[in-house]
Each structure stands twice: as C-alpha cells, then as structure tokens.
Amino acid sequence: MLKSATEAFLAECVEWNAFDANVYLGHSGTRGVLALEAPELLAEMDRFGIARALVSHNVGLEYDAVEGNHALMRDAHQRFVPAWTVTPDAGALLDFASREAKAARLWFATSHHNFSSAAWCSGEVLEQMQHRNVLALISKSDIDWDALHSLLENFPRLNVLLLEIGYRADRYMNPLLKKFPNLYFDTSMYAAHRQLEWHVETIGPERMIYGSRLPYYTPGASLAMLGTARISDAAKVAVAGGNLRRLLGERA
Amino acid sequence: MKSPIPILDCHGHIGVHPDFPHYKTAPAEMVRVMDHLNIEKLAVTSTLACYNDCPRGNEEVAEVLREFPDRFLGYITVNPNPPGEAIAELLKHKDFHHPPLIKFHPELHQYPVNGPHYMPVYEYANQTGAIILVHTWDSDANCGPLMFASLGKQFPRMRVILGHSGVTWRGYTQAIETVKQTENTFMDISGSQSHRTVMEHSVEQVGHERILFGSDMPFLEASMLLGRVMTARISDAAKEAILRKNFERLLNEK
Asked: What are the pLDDT digits (tens) for B45-81?
C-alpha cells in the first residue's frame, strides 16, 4: 500500500514536467556527504521526475567564477541549463561575455565571492545581465533586504530569482513582489504551513518557481508541498516549470 | 499525496507565530488540513506557552481538547521559571493524557535542559512514565541533542522525544548518538531542513522503531515531512512505524 502510494505520487510529479531552478552540481569541499557529480545528480532527477534543472557549479560557489564556468562546460548535459558564475573582476566579466548565458549566479557574501551588490561595485555586471536579458540568481543569504530593494530599483529590467528565501520571509517578500514585477523566488525553503496556498491567494502563482535544492535537500519534500497545495492544476504546472521556462525565453 | 495510513503526529501547535502571517491556523482549519493529508491525531503544545505564558497557553490546549477530543492530544508546556510553576501546571492538567505529555522549549525559555529548575519535572516524568517533547537544535547550549544522553540514563522511566532531531545534518548526528546511547530517547523528524538521505541514514543508525513523525503544524508544512518519509529509500514497515506505530506504542505504554 505504501509503495504504490509513493509510486503514484512520483508518477504525478512526472506529469508536471518539472524544471528545477535550484540545483548544485559537482564535488563540494564542505558538503561532501551529499554533493553529487552529474551522473548521480541526473539519476536523482529521474527518480523524482524532474525533467531539467538550472544548475550552479560548486567549483563556482566554493572556489572561482571562471574555474566554475569551466566545470559547468565540462559537466554539461542537455537537461542542465547552466547558471554561470560572474563577479565584477575583468577576467570573470570577459568569461561571462563569452557565454551564451540564460542565467547567472551572483555570490555577493563575504564568505563567497565578497563583493557589493550596489551599483558602484556591481553596476557593470548587472547592466550587462540586464542588457542581455540574463536571469540573475541570488541566494537570500548573499544579500540583505535593503540591498535587494536597491538592486531591483536600479535595474528594473533585470529579472531576479531569489533562492532559498526561507519560510519567515513573507513580510519582506510581499512588499517587494508587489513593487517589483521583475522579482521571483524559489520554493525550496518556502515551507511554512500552507504557505504555497497563501502565496497563490495573495500574489498569484506567476512569481513562484519550483526549486529542490538538490543534492542537499530531497525533492520528495518540495514536490510533496507543491502536490498537496490546494491550488489549481494549472498553477501547479506553472510553478513546477512553466514560470521558469517563460523567464528563460522558452515556451511556458 | 495523502498518507495511505492514518498518521499519529507527535509534534504540533495551537496558536500563531510572531514572524509570519497567520493562515489556516485555527483548530478547525487545521483539522481540514489533517483530513487532506490523512493525519488522524496531532499532539499539540501551545505556541503562546512556548513564547510567553504557560498557564494561559495550557488553558488554550484544554479548550481545543474539549472541542476536538478525537483529533488532538495535549502536551502540557512547562517553563522552568519561575520555579514551582512547572509542577503546578503538570498537576493542574494531569488529565490531558495518561501517561502525561510534557513539552519543553528551552531555546525560547532560555534555560538549559540540565539546569536545576528542570529536575523536579524529570522526577515527575520518571514517576509517571511521561513523554517529554523537547525542542532541540544542533549544539545549542540550552538544548543540544547530546545533552539528553546523560539525562536519559539518569531518569530511565521517562521517554524523551528529541524535537526536530537537532535540525541540521550535524544536529541529526548528535540526535543519533544520543538515541544509540540511551533506551528512552526518540527522534522527531519535524524541521525545516529536508536533508537528502537523512531518513535512510537515521533508520540505518538507530532502527526505524526510534523515529517518530512530527510535522510542527501549523508552523511548518506537514506535507514536507510526509514527502520525506514516503519517498525515502526505506522499507514499507519502516514508513508505517514512523508514520504511526511508534508514537502509538509510546502513547499506550504506561
């Protein structure tokens, strides 16, 4: 009985044609137990019916932007859409300019690449991303709310996908979502009681994007939250992948 | 996804939280969510008691138990301060459940679980075979999971549920270590961090009989925990034990 219930749930997930916005690829110096190389990561995606993923490389996160982008090239797969890493350094900007980029990751935190999100520091990077219509991926832990507000105000045509916002963020996120149509967020840590339903009732399903945080978190959790939310099937399909496809310029 | 078997949920609340909007937190609304996911019974503690006022919070639980006697079980939440209040609350609400269900939130009450003000509660729990649900967090000075390795041995007749099992991956390793060293401590899977493979690792390390389903409803989303259990690479017998049988066994042991 339990096995068939699990299989039925996983079969339902396949029907959503999920496009996961928050996946990490490759060896990690700090998360060694859980980090996965490409073949194992693809096997996990298969198990949960996740069709495609927007992937950041751990080399880019933990080490160097340009080296991380080389690692993304090395581990490329048709089901991965690379989230290139970029910093304001001349070499990183040159590398980024050479990429056919749909998305890029900005690691502002002092414990990561250690630069400001303000225009006086990141203006050239953000202007280039806005001009090329590249989706900006930022982890919430890498930016404070006021800095995010300034970034959205200064770059109104730059689409920003805020990752891992946590479940205590609504009092910050809702005013920002209402003010800035270019702000989106992922569901990987949006885990308060019936929070997906609350968001769809309050804001709508268009700004919420499915993310699992693979390989650190199990997609079983985030998919169950989406699957049991009392929202329309169309809203589930949009959150599972349609919204991200549209943001990346594909058919939703 | 709905649970194929009725769940007995060891970790829930009555009330709201200060730092995010209130939504479907009334007991009647919670019952509808429980029906949606097939949670038969939810053991609740008062959030007001965890944050601010145990006597008033425990009265809220009493009211909910009167209104929904078949859907909720009641923890008596105790604060070690002021000294004496905890035992008074335990005696006042001794009919909530037999054996007593007791809740500690040492992080919010800012008092260590091995401090002297908790000792009368442990003695009471040891005499009555009570089940104590304790909020735990990785290495926390007031409620790190490892603190129960010695307390569990010192008071062998009480049962302790390590709420959230320490939350982080390292917190889980601490909870696992404590459960291995004692016979009367148990892991609760509620928590916001959905570590991949932690269910499999926990079952492998301590056996599925020592792991309980907790949702933390209406704070956290219960289906997140259901998804973790249902999609874990563990046996159906293990899932059934975690979702229902283990807490059922604890509740029925006097």
From this structure: 999 999 999 999 999 999 999 999 999 999 999 999 9
Q: What is the pLDDT of residues B104-155, one digit of tens each?
A: 999 999 999 999 999 999 999 999 999 999 999 999 999 999 999 999 999 9
**ipTM metric:** 0.96
Structural domain including A47 reads 2-247
Sign of CA dihedral B37, A166, B247, B72: negative
In a domain, A229, yes or no: yes
B2 part of a folded domain: no
Q: Domain holding A73: CATH number?
A: 3.20.20.140
CB neighbours of residue B183 within 10 Å: 10
Nearest C-alpha in A relative to B191? A191
- Among B24, B197, B227, select the one facing A224 at the smallest CB separation: B227
Q: Do A9 and B21 touch (CB under 8 A)?
A: no
Interface residues of A toward B, Cβ cutoff 8 Å, are 1-6, 9-10, 12, 33-34, 44, 48, 166-168, 170-171, 189, 191-198, 213-225, 227-228, 230
Q: What's the total number of domains in chain B?
A: 1
How many Å lie between the alpha carbon of A164 and the closest alpha carbon of chain B? Answer: 11
Q: Cis before residue A39, ω within 30 degrees of 0? A: no
Q: How far is B3 from chain A (nearest CA, A)?
A: 8
In this structure, the number of other CB atoms found within 10 A of the CB of residue A134 comes to 23
